[in-house]
Specification:
The chain is mainly alpha-helical. It is about 70% helix and about 5% strand. A hairpin with a 6-residue loop joins strand 1 and strand 2.
Length: about 100
Amino acid sequence: MGISAIKVGTRVAAVYIERRTITAPDGPVPEEIMSFSTQQRPIVEGWVQGKVLHAFARWTIGMRPNLSDATQHALVTIFKATVMKASQILRPLTE
């Protein structure tokens, strides 16, 4: 999984949650699910992670020409591990 998966997954979840509503047993007025903080948090986290990781990718690519092979390899390894950990946000988005 990568940055694109995080961005697309976040967008799909946000659009889906925006359309969903629930109705309380004692009230006829439907309430948007997006109004609950438990639904907002994964959306915001996914959006922020997509933006930060995209900037991190551009920074890593920009740094590469001036660095030794070992340093380039270290940056790529750090980037890959960070993206893989950040892609864990997709689990709460699917719920």
